[in-house]
Amino acid sequence: MAEDTVIEILRNALQMEDEFAPSDATRLDEMPNLDSMARVRMVLEIERVLDDRLGMEEIIGIETVGHIRALLAAKGKLQVEG
Questions:
Q1: What 3-state class would DSSP assign to 61?
Q2: Is residue 40 situated within a structural domain?
Q3: Distance (Å, whole) CA 39 – CA 66
Q4: What is the dihedral sign for C-alpha 55, 20, 11, 74?
Q5: Would you state the pLDDT for residue 3?
């Protein structure tokens, strides 16, 4: 994937242009184009990257861009700096 997997997931799900780059603190409910279908696409994109299904609690727990990053890191699909 691109240099930032999380941003790429969101760009694909929201069908946004390359300039779209929210911060980790950005809440999903604040994002343009994030309707119910975009949420489904987002979950499918995350599952594709993970090559695994998400549980309902994991899906419900995704409230910010940072939550997506933490989820991917916890499952070993994303390197975390620090």
A1: coil
A2: yes
A3: 16
A4: negative
A5: 58
List the domain range (segments joined by +) for residue 11. Answer: 5-74
Does 72 or 32 have the greater pLDDT score?
Answer: 72
The pair of three-digit structure tokens given for residue 12, joined into one six-digit string: 């694909």
Average pLDDT score over residue span 12-17: 85
Q: What is the mean pLDDT of residues 46-73?
A: 94
CA–CA distance, 44 with 50 (Å, rounded to integer): 10
Number of domains in the chain: 1
Residues 6 or more apart whose CB falls under 8 angstroms from that of 79 comprise 73
Domain assignment present for 53: yes
pLDDT value of position 19: 80
Q: Is the residue at 63 inside a domain?
A: yes
Do the Cβ atoms of 32 and 14 come closer than 8 Å? Answer: yes
